[in-house]
């Protein structure tokens, strides 16, 4: 049996940037164990699996090389891009049934906008000793979202120059660690960030949509803004536009197909 398979760069700002995701189009639901094996074979941060339901909406699941995850922004963006560009989908808005509920995607110019649940971080008084050691001191603010920890640093330069230790980060995280700081002066950016999730097989994620559901809430409150521009300052890098609306975050970005083919297995 063969299935259409794509490699897509999501949240790009130039060629060979953003976050690569695998997208596999299925004719019906497949066992989680099989999808996990495909994701391991693809060896991307996430591989998305989509198949159409009886009501015309799409079912969507995401897998890292090690585990299934409950929310993934860049692989959702990649899946929507593939359905519009390669699968003949013509609907103006795509709906996806996922582990995080009903999500949607729509095209706005040359970008795709995702409608995701907001993630409001709560302050945590005790900073893990391993993180204090990695940072060389206490962060400006430290908190916990649904799945990830967030440490707010004083400058974008400190975020960019941070040297991670995957073993230490895995020792105190349940999924991931977000480092963030205000954007550089004059850059037009409200924030910069990096994301590390060695616990689920991702030492550093290039661009993380789900983390920005948390970042939009933190920076929206801090800056008193509902429209924000964000850069994930990983080596590949990526840009996102965020619109925070009560308990939802709209994430917008571009995508580009890099490879097309078929998976046999």
UniProtKB/TrEMBL annotation:
It comes from the Bacteria. It holds the Pfam family PhzC-PhzF. GO terms for cellular component: cytoplasm. The keyword Isomerase applies. The keyword Nucleus does not apply. PANTHER family: PHENAZINE BIOSYNTHESIS PROTEIN, PHENAZINE BIOSYNTHESIS-LIKE DOMAIN-CONTAINING PROTEIN. This is Oxidoreductase. It comes from Cellvibrio mixtus.
């Amino acid at each position: 049996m063969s299935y259409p398979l794509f490699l897509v760069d999501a949240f790009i700002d130039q060629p060979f940037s953003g976050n690569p995701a695998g997208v596999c189009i299925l004719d019906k639901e497949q066992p989680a164990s099989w999808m996990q094996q495909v994701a391991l074979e693809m060896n991307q941060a996430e591989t998305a699996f989509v198949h159409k339901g009886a009501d015309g909406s799409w079912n969507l699941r995401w897998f890292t090389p090690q585990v299934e995850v409950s929310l993934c922004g860049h692989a959702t963006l990649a899946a929507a891009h593939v359905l519009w560009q390669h699968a003949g989908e013509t609907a103006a808005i795509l709906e996806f049934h996922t582990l995080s509920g009903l999500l949607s995607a729509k095209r706005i110019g040359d970008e795709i906008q995702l409608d995701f649940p907001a993630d409001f971080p709560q302050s945590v008084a005790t900073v893990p000793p391993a993180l204090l050691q990695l940072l060389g001191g206490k962060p400006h603010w430290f908190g916990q979202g649904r799945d990830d920890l967030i440490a707010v640093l004083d400058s974008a330069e400190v975020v960019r120059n941070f040297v991670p230790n995957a073993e230490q980060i895995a020792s105190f995280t349940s999924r991931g660690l977000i480092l963030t700081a205000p954007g550089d002066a004059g850059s037009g950016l409200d924030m910069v960030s990096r994301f590390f999730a060695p616990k689920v097989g991702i030492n550093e994620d290039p661009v993380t949509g789900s983390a920005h559901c948390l970042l939009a809430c933190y920076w929206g409150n801090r800056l008193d803004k509902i429209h924000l521009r964000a850069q994930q300052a990983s080596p590949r890098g990526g840009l996102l536009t965020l619109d925070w609306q009560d308990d939802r975050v709209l994430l917008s970005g571009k995508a580009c197909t890099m490879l097309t083919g078929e998976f046999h297995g």
